[in-house]
Structure of OmpH family outer membrane protein:
Amino acid sequence: MLKKITIFILLALPMSVFAQNFKFGHINAQEIITVMPEFTKAQNDLQALEKQLTDELKRTQDEFNKKYQEFQQAISKDSLPANIAERRQKELQDMAQRQEQFQQDAAQQMQKAQADLMTPIYKKLDDAIKAVGVSEGVIYIFDLARTSIPYINESQSTNLTNKVKNQLGIK
């Protein structure tokens, strides 16, 4: 008898789980982030930093090109003693190495700045998504911008993008 009851429970349990009305939601985080004021400010800050770094890189490149041309002209005229030519060549090599190092440092600086500026924005978005998820009583909120989901049945999954925008105070 106990065996029959156990089998019945094991068979009925999955049916009761499927009988529940699960609620799912989905959003498009990209659509939300691009209208967040913090995102606009972060993009402006990143563009300003990129311009600074690009300007500095151009300045050093122009300086290198000028010195290189002067060196080439002096070599072609045979007007430099060997020890001075050697010293200027070494100077040019050092400049090229510093410029290469600056490019690497600039790329790292841009990556760090982007992470520093975007991390709090994503945290704020994630907090808003969680708040909407709790208030709407959904089990999952899928982000169509971060996860490739080829199909969503709109009758069984609610688009919560606008509710997350409202949670963030965005119209």
